Amino acid sequence: MYEWIKALHIIAVISWMAGMLYLPRLFVYHCEAEAGSRQSETFKVMERRLLKAIINPAMIVTWLAGLYLAWAGHWLFMSWWIYGKLVLVLVLSGVHGFFVRWVRDFAADRNRHSQKFYRLINEIPTVLMIGIVILVVVKPF
């Protein structure tokens, strides 16, 4: 069962990261659209569906499967790398929370950020993912 849960965890992580990397790109393009325009309304639908149908469920499955793996594999009491990973995943979850807020802001035509801001924000999930993968594969401590 452990290996099946691990496979589910990896699939969920890939799905979560795909959404976390794509959503800020949508924000960049949405900034160009005039509020109330057909293009803006299309971006609102895309952002909401991406968040509700892919990103949110993938994050939930990632967390549930990951916590099971940490418990079942006895990683919580045997290795320090898991705590670093948990910190980075918590930060990634916080970024996810900001994305939820920005989807709501765009939906209400209240975006307060520039394209440059979203281009920069787009790099944060990538940096966190790199750190998480290194901790899981290399297990440096």
Number of helices: 5
Instruction: Give the radius of gyration.
Output: 17 Å
Q: How many β strands by DSSP? A: 0
> From the helix content, strand content and strand pairing, which structural class follows?
mainly alpha
Proportion of helical residues: over 70%
| Number of domain modules | 1
End-to-end distance? 27 Å
> Spans of 5+ residues with little confidence (pLDDT < 50)?
none
Q: What would you call the shape?
A: elongated
Strand residue content:
under 5%
Main pleated sheet: none
Mean pLDDT: 96
Order of helices and strands: HHHHH
Topology:
Blueprint: H1 2-32, H2 38-72, H3 81-107, H4 115-121, H5 123-138
Helix pairs in contact: 1-2, 1-3, 1-4, 2-3, 3-5
Describe this structure in words.
The protein has helices spanning 2-32, 38-72, 81-107, 115-121, 123-138. The mean pLDDT is 96. The two termini are 27 Å apart. Helix 1 runs parallel beside helix 3, helix 2 packs antiparallel against helix 3 and helix 3 (81-107) packs antiparallel against helix 5 (123-138). It has five helices and no strands. The chain has one domain. With 141 residues, it is an all-alpha fold.
